[in-house]
């Protein structure tokens, strides 16, 4: 059992996520290697500043990263977008068994069975005209999808998402914020042998722990990429937190030098809000779904990393029509020193420069 302070745990988490100064300064600027280490980039496409997959890459690689680099990896089939994350194609073998058993819900299974003709019609359209966004796939369900939520009566999109989960359909590019769907055989390479679920699960857990550094074995599931690591790594206790953790032993006793960074709201450092609160004592809620009057920090506020602490939020919006990055506020969770002000301002300028924009501070 390893016994860690919160500071040690934070540094392990940041080092594993390639957010320490040594990784930023010394690591080769290799996008595929970065995605492979992180295991998955968030696919949330909100572009108030930039899509989250681009922000995650920029925060690790700096201005050497350009969004076209990720487009190239997707086009070359070095990585793939499964709707939950952009992953290295080499990891597809670890997900195929789960795809074959998808979906796990009886209601969805019954709906697919009742809509076999609808399914075939959707696949015929993609074979003839794909890749296509869902709005251009015109097919008729025999049995409409019933839901009390936002999916009610959106039959084509539900069919495409279920077929995507099964690995029958794949994402083949995007049109703005919209996924473009195609037959999986046009995206995934031939001959990939599925690793059985009982072997693939532990291997995915080990890879995820290497990317997270420290995480819980189990807990509440959230949509998208899992945040827990099962029995991977070694047990640890973190001072001031309840329960047991799992830690990557390769991260123990390694040196740490902090840096300043602006993070996506969907970055792995903050995506698991419970882990974020336990390790960083950071108060954060993504407010894009709240009415404007109820927001404290802004529509798409970026968490601010300074050293090994999360110290504030950047409320900013990119307006490409006028070439400006409008900074509405820098919310300070702790009083900034002059050095912190200087470093955070420099990171904002670096973000604007990467976006090809000029910083304009709102008064």
Outline:
globular
State mean pLDDT (0 to 100 scale). Answer: 94
> Segments where pLDDT lies below 50 for 5+ residues?
none
Individual helix count = 13
Helicity, in percent?
25-40%
* Structural class by sheet pairing and helices: alpha+beta
- C-alpha Rg (nearest Å): 21 Å
Q: Span between N and C termini? A: 52 Å
Oligomer: single chain
User: How much strand content do the residues show?
Assistant: 15-25%
Strands of the largest sheet, in order across it?
10-11-12-13-14
Q: What's the β-strand tally? A: 14
Question: What does the main sheet amount to?
Answer: 5 strands, mixed
Series of H and E elements: EHHHHHEEHHHEHEEHEEEEHHEEEHE
Short description:
With 363 residues, this protein is α+β, with helices and mostly antiparallel strands. It is built from 13 helices and 14 strands.
């Amino acid at each position: 059992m390893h016994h860690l302070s919160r500071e040690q745990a934070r540094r392990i988490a940041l080092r594993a996520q390639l957010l320490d100064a040594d990784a930023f300064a010394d690591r080769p600027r290799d996008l595929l290697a970065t995605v492979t280490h992180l295991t998955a980039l968030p696919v949330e496409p909100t572009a108030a500043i930039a899509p989250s997959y681009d922000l995650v890459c920029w925060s690790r690689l700096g201005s050497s990263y350009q969004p076209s680099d990720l487009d190239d990896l997707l086009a070359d089939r070095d990585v793939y977008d499964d709707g939950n994350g952009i992953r290295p194609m080499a990891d597809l073998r670890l997900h195929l068994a789960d795809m074959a058993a998808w979906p796990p819900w009886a209601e969805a299974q019954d709906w697919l069975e009742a809509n076999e003709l609808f399914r075939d019609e959707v696949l015929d359209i993609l074979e003839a005209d794909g890749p296509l966004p869902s709005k251009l796939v015109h097919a008729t369900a025999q049995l409409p999808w019933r839901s009390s939520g936002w999916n009610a009566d959106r039959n084509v999109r539900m069919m495409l998402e279920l077929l995507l989960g099964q690995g029958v359909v794949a994402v083949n590019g995007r049109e703005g914020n919209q996924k473009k769907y195609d037959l999986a055989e046009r995206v995934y390479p031939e001959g990939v042998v599925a690793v059985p679920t009982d072997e693939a699960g532990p291997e995915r857990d080990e890879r995820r722990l290497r990317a997270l550094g420290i995480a819980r074995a189990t807990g509440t599931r959230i949509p998208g990429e899992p945040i827990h690591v099962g029995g991977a790594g070694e047990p640890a206790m973190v001072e001031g937190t309840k329960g047991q953790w799992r830690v990557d032993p390769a991260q123990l006793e390694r040196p740490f030098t902090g840096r300043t960074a602006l993070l996506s709201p969907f970055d792995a450092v903050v995506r698991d809000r419970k882990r974020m609160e336990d390790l960083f004592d950071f108060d954060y809620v993504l407010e894009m779904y709240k009415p404007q009057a109820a927001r404290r920090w802004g529509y798409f506020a970026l968490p601010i990393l300074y050293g090994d602490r999360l110290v504030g939020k950047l409320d900013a919006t990119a307006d490409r029509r006028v070439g400006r990055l409008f900074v509405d506020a820098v919310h300070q969770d702790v009083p900034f020193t002059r050095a912190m002000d200087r470093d955070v301002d420099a990171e904002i300028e670096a973000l604007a420069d990467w976006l090809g924009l000029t910083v304009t501070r709102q008064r």
